Amino acid sequence: MKNAKIISVIVLILIGVSFTLGCGGGGGDKDAEADVDEDEAFEDNGGEENGCVEDCPEDICGDGLKGPGEVCDGSDFGGDNCQKHGFLGGSLRCSTSCDTITYSSCAYGCGNGRRDGDEECDGSDLGGDTCVLHGFELGRVTCNPDCTRNLEGCYDTVCGNGVVEPPIEDCENGVPLDANCEDLGFSGGQLACLNCEYDTSDCIPP
C-alpha cells in the first residue's frame, strides 16, 4: 500500500513537469520570436517608434483621409487653407496623386496685402513702383484702398520755393547752407548758392 502511494506521487510529478514543458517552456520560445519580429519591424521603420508595429495605417490616395506620407487627400488638407497662403478665401485643390496643392480656386482680393491679378498695388506691396517711373523727380507712391496707385505724394523740385529738396537741389537762395568749402574738398573760401546748386567759385583750391 505504501509503495502504491509513492508511485502515485511520482506519476503526479511527471504529469506536472510535462505540463510545464508544454506551456511554459514553449511559450518562452514564442515570446522570444515575437520580440524578434517587433525588433525587425522597428529596424525596418528606421528605428522610430510609431505605436503600430503590427497594423500600421497605409497611405491610400483617394480615400479622403490625409495620410502621413500625403500632402492632401480629397478635401482633407490637414488644417491648411487659402487664408494661410495670403488669399481672402476660397478652397484649396488637391491633385489626384495626393502630392500637390493648387490655389486656383482661392479668392484673390484687394486688401490681402499682396498685389494680385490686375491690381496696381495692395497695401505696402507697390510692385517696385516709384515716382520716377511716372516722370516725377521726388516723392513716394502710395496705394489707395481700392488697390489703385496714388501719385499725390510725387512731385518735382521747384528752385526758389525756399525749401531745399535733395538730392535734386543742393541749396536754396536765402536758406543757410548746410555745407562749406572744406566739406567739398577745398582748403577754404566762401561757398555760395546759385540756381539751387553749390557755387564754389569763391572756394580756395587745396
List keywords for this structure.
two-stranded antiparallel ribbon; 206 residues
Folded structure, characterized:
By secondary structure, this protein is of the alpha+beta class. Among the domains are: 60-107, no CATH class; 111-156, no CATH class; 159-206, no CATH class. It is 21% helix and 13% strand. The chain contains one helix and twelve strands; from the N terminus they run αββββββββββββ. The chain has one helix spanning 2-44; strands at 89-90, 93-94, 101-102, 106-107, 138-139, 142-143, 149-150, 154-155, 188-189, 192-194, 197-199, 203-204. The protein has a two-stranded antiparallel sheet. A two-stranded antiparallel ribbon has the order 2-3. A two-stranded antiparallel ribbon has the order 5-8. The protein starts with a helix and ends with a strand. 11% of the residues are buried. Mean pLDDT is 80; it is low at 23-28 and 41-51.
Order of helices and strands, N to C? HEEEEEEEEEEEE
Structural class: alpha+beta
Q: How large is the radius of gyration?
A: 43 Å
Strand order of the largest sheet: 1-4
Per DSSP, the total helix count is 1
Topology (elements, then pairings):
Elements: H1 2-44, E1 89-90, E2 93-94, E3 101-102, E4 106-107, E5 138-139, E6 142-143, E7 149-150, E8 154-155, E9 188-189, E10 192-194, E11 197-199, E12 203-204
Antiparallel strand pairs: 1-4, 2-3, 5-8, 6-7, 9-12, 10-11
